[in-house]
Amino acid sequence: MIMKPARFLMQVSIFKSEDMKRIFLFAALLISVSIQPLRAQNAAVITKFNKTLTSYYDLKNALATDKAPEAQQLATPLVAAVKAVPHAGFATAYQHQLWMEQSAIIIEQSNAITATADLAAQRKIFRAVSDAFVKLATELKINSSTVYVQYCPMGKYNWLNEVKAVQNPFYGSQMYDCGEVKETLTKK
Fold first, then answer.
1. How do residues 57-109 score in pLDDT, each as one tens digit?
2. How far is CA 150 from CA 7, 81, 133, 167, in A?
3. Which one of 77, 80, 85, 116 has the minimum C-beta count within 10 Å?
4. Does the pLDDT value for residue 10 go beyond 90?
C-alpha cells in the first residue's frame, strides 16, 4: 500500500493537535509567571525614580526663581533621592546601564551645586544635571505624572518641567518664560 505524502506526515507526526494546545498553554503560563516578578520589581524603581523627579523639580524651581541659597540646599536631597533608586528592578540591562551612567553625572554635578552659592555657576552646573534627567525621562518612560521637556533657543538648554508653562532655570527672572515645550511625556 502506497500512502500519499500528506497523509503519511499526518500519521507520523509526533504531536497531535491536543498535544500542541497543551504545550502552547504551558508555554504561555510559564511566560506570564516569569514576567510577573519583573513587574513587581519595577514598582520600587518607578516610585524612587519619580521621587528623584520631584527633587529635580525643586532644584529647577529654585534656579528659575533666582534663589541660589535654596538651590544650594536642594541639591543635597536630590543626591539622596538618586542614591535611593534600587539598582535591581530595571526592565532591561540597557535601562540599568543608562541609569548607572546618568545617575553618576547627576550625583557629581549636584554635589558641585552644593559647593557654590554663585547662581551663575549653579546654573552652568545644572545643565549637566538637566541633560541627564532629560535622557533618563525620555528613554525610561516611567514617570508617574506628565513631564514636559522644555527648550530655550537662546542658550540651547533643555530641562524637565512639571507644568506646561515655561519656567526657565537657566535665565531665571531675566527670561523666566523664555522657551517652549519640546516634548510631552505622558504619565505611565
1. 999 999 999 999 999 999 999 999 999 999 889 999 999 999 999 999 999 99
2. 66, 23, 12, 9
3. 80
4. no
For 119, the grid coordinates are 547662581
The CA-CA-CA angle for residues 86, 87, 93, to 5°, reads 135
Residue at 65 is within a domain: yes
| 181 DSSP β-pair partners | 150
The answer as to whether 78 is a domain residue is: yes
Residue 34 has a pLDDT of 46
Residue 45 placed within a domain? no
Q: For residue 103, tell me if it sits in a domain.
A: yes
Provide the residue type at 82 as one letter.
V
Backbone angles phi, psi at 158, to 5 degrees: -115, 150
Three cell numbers written together for 21: 494546545
Give residue 121's domain range: 57-185
Residue 161's nearest CA partner among 63, 70, 79 is 63
Count structural domains, the chain.
Answer: 1
Dig out the grid coordinates for 8 from the structure.
503519511
User: Which of 141, 148, 144, 138 minimizes the C-alpha distance to 60?
Assistant: 148
| Contact in structure between 92 and 42 (CB atoms under 8 Å) | no
